[in-house]
Design goal:
This protein has 472 residues and is α/β, with parallel strands linked by helices. It contains 23 helices and eleven strands. The strands form two sheets. Strands 1-6-5-2-3-4 form a six-stranded mixed sheet, with helices on both faces. It has a five-stranded mixed sheet with strand order 7-11-10-8-9. It starts with a helix and ends with a strand.
Length: 472
């Protein structure tokens, strides 16, 4: 059995146990934290390729081709040469930036060589990917500052000491205009304009500069210069990565394989990508308690993509716990606490993760809402005839009320919380309940849960916002 197989056997036994207990969770986090540094060189080429493909959106031209090239390099006593390009566009980064780095760490531990390409030249152009307008270029000082911040914050997920660093100004700065024209004569404009964001900007009359149009060519020249076996990138970078394959072919090189990473949805559950501009991110420089709390606030449906993105769990392990949730032998909240613990353990260690877990339980799980001061109050006699969406708008400040409330309900974030002598009981409101009169929905749900007149204090909870219901 491989080292990974042994770890999976130990963890799978724990994942089948009671994950609401601290002792089990601490043992699990200790096992999976150690797995982040596990030597994976004893995996076969097929196992290595599967472990990479399991976290990728696409492997081009295919997973079997990746396994084949791993086998070829191994037979020659070498590892693959892997490339990831980084445009250091910000000093503070968030959890979304770690997704390719975690996969890159797997490549490292499989015995492959990794080159991190610092796009100091292309950062001055500005990568237009996903932008509706031109991205402002950066100065040398900006790039140096941002790179230092990036390395420091991503370090818990990746061994920066075991990689090569290159800057694409090495080969792009001396590139001559005649060389560029000769290259561009072989690149169809139609290929550059395949990008949907380019087409949208042109059709709307927005600007599109020549520097942006040539950005994929510049990135493709990076692949030519480094002559790598594999390039990683976000799913939104696919056309840029394919340009690298084309230019390598034009230069008579063996085209690189392409591995694209998923774009992780933000914590607010709106479907938008995690980003600082939208405020739906988990900062890598946040405290352990803040990281834990942020993860606990996400909709239940994000647990699967988050487990795949930020843990070293195998697909089988993830399927095991999600199956337990579906079978109701594992509460989603308990799984989410494990997920939050995984992220905190990666950043700050298992001890910090368990402390953050204890702090969260003390603050939220065991706290009676009756102890919270100045909660908004909703009188059923006054608001009972109004739809739940209207109540949320008036009392909890949801704007626009209907769309915001229905979105929260769709994500299982709209609930009645009933406090009884045995603690709290949560009742999820369906999306259809959000547009029904409050005075009809609440008694109906309470009766359906077997509470009825025996219910104690009742609260309406939408995300993190809470109001007390009175007059039932």
């Amino acid at each position: 059995m491989t080292r990974l197989g042994e770890s999976v056997a130990r963890a799978s036994e724990l994942l089948a146990q009671d994950l609401s207990t601290d002792s089990t969770v601490e043992r699990l986090l200790t096992e999976t934290k150690a797995r982040r540094y596990l030597d994976l060189t004893d995996l076969s080429p097929e196992e290595q390729a599967a472990l990479i493909a399991g976290r990728a959106v696409e492997v081009l031209p295919g997973e079997e081709k990746l396994a084949e090239r791993i086998g070829e390099r191994r037979a020659a006593g070498k590892g693959l040469h892997i490339k990831l390009g980084i445009d250091p566009t910000a000093a503070d980064v968030h959890l979304g930036h770690t997704v390719p780095m975690i996969v890159l760490s797997r490549f490292q531990r499989m015995g492959h060589d990794v080159t991190l390409l610092i796009g100091d030249f292309t950062a001055k152009i500005g990568d237009p990917t996903g932008r509706t307008a031109e991205r402002p270029p950066l100065t040398d000082a900006d790039i140096e500052k941002n790179l230092a911040g990036y390395r420091e914050q991503v370090r818990p997920f990746f061994d920066f000491e075991a990689v090569s660093f290159r800057q694409n100004s090495e080969w792009l700065s001396p590139y001559t205009f005649p060389e560029l024209l000769g290259l561009l004569s072989q690149v169809p404009v139609s290929q550059l304009l395949q990008r949907e964001d380019f087409r949208n900007r042109l059709s709307s009359g927005s600007g599109l500069t020549m520097s942006e149009l040539l950005y994929p060519v510049a990135q493709g020249l990076d692949s030519v210069a480094l002559d790598c076996d594999v390039e990683l990138g976000g799913a939104d970078q696919l056309l840029n990565l394919q340009m690298g394959r084309k230019l390598m072919e034009l230069r008579g090189q063996r085209p690189q394989l392409v591995v694209t990473m998923p774009l992780i949805e933000g914590t607010d559950g709106t479907g938008a990508k995690m980003s600082k501009s939208k405020g739906n991110y988990v900062g890598l420089n946040a405290t352990a308690d803040d990281v834990f709390g942020k993860i606990m606030s996400v909709p239940d449906r994000l647990m699967e993509p988050y487990l795949k993105a930020w843990t070293e769990w195998t697909d089988a392990e993830i399927a095991l716990v999600l199956g337990r949730v579906e079978a109701r032998s594992l509460h989603p909240m308990d799984l989410k606490k494990v997920l939050a613990g995984e992220v905190v353990a990666a950043l700050y260690g298992v001890e910090a993760a368990m402390a953050a877990r204890a702090g969260f339980v003390a603050q939220f799980s065991k706290k009676s809402f009756t102890d919270v001061e100045a909660l908004p109050v909703v009188e059923i006699a006054e608001h009972g005839a109004e739809p739940v969406t209207g109540v949320l708008s008036k009392v909890l400040g949801f704007q626009p009320s209907a769309s915001a409330a229905r979105r929260v309900a769709k994500q299982n974030g709209l609930r009645l919380v009933v406090e009884t002598g045995d603690g709290q009981q949560a009742i999820v409101l369906a999306e259809a309940d959000a547009i029904r009169p409050l005075g009809e929905v609440v008694p109906e749900l309470l009766a359906g849960a077997g509470l009825g007149s025996a219910a104690g204090s009742v609260y309406l909870k939408a995300g993190r916002k809470i109001a007390e219901l009175r007059g039932l």
